[in-house]
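pipeline stage [seq->struct] | target=Ribosome maturation factor RimP | organism=Enterobacter asburiae | residues=111
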Amino acid sequence: MSTLEQKLTEMITAPVEALGYELVGIEFVRGRTSTLRIYIDSEDGINVDDCADVSHQVSAVLDVEDPITVAYNLEVSSPGLDRPMFTAEHYVRFTGEEVASRSAYGRTEPP
């Protein structure tokens, strides 16, 4: 996790949790059009209205704190079936479940 992602996580965790959701993780992808992806979850699942509520709340926080110096798109979603795992707790929660993994090096076969 980058320093910016750590700062953003600290900044938005409380507002997301105040709405009753778990902040699963975030990704900030720099590019011609940078994107801040926020993944949320709850015991009841996530729907579009949940994502909109979190988007509005997080946008308000980011507008005041202004931690991102470039233009970016904000995306809020559930982690979905292909959920990324961000913390050790995520691995523990899904112990015994089937997973697929991808190497950061792009190799699919042993050396």
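stage status: PASS
auto-comment: The longest helix spans residues 48-65. Residues 21-93 form a domain with the GMP Synthetase; Chain A, domain 3 fold (CATH 3.30.300.70).
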